[in-house]
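Thread: "does anyone have the structure for this chain?"

Original post by V.I.:
We have the sequence but no experimental structure in hand. Need at least a predicted one for the grant figures.
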Amino acid sequence: MATTPYLTGQFLLAMPGIGDPRFDQAVIAICAHDDNGALGIGIGAAIDGLGLHDVLEQLEIDPGEAPDAPVHFGGPVEPRRGFILHSNDWSGADTVDVGGRWSLSATIDVLREIAEGKGPSRWVVALGYAGWGEGQLDEEMTRHGWFNVTGDEALLYDTPAEKRWSKGFAEAGIDPSLLANSAGTA
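Reply from O.Q.:
Generated one for you, tokens below.
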């Protein structure tokens, strides 16, 4: 049994000094968290020089009505695999409801629907994911590393990637500039 509450549908904000440069100022949307482990999609950083139209072109999909939105660094695991976090007004064969807050899809169908203007009304595209094995995230939550906040739709859809980390802390009443990058001992 997990020692911390299951975090599905919440965001993890990386604390300063987390110890892994891939997660500096990371914002992870937790999409699954149970006794077997956890899976999250990074939404705190866009991949420089890569937009949705580039991805659609590689997949031979006409961009149609889709805006050339940024593609996010979803995490270090399987960085060539795509994921779409999206509103609950669309569902495909592989769509997973994430705590009633948003949905996760990972097939080409959702991209085709977005390009045709028939997909979800709100969405975020990412490549890769962050994953934790059995009990790993629970253990990490007991150390200085991650801070969890409610899965706010405005943070997911209305906030630019580069502002999500600071806004997540601000919404929790924390000034991130006052956070220490190490934990003390007594």
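V.I.: this helps a lot. The longest strand covers residues 77-86.
O.Q.: and The first helix runs from residue 52 to 58.
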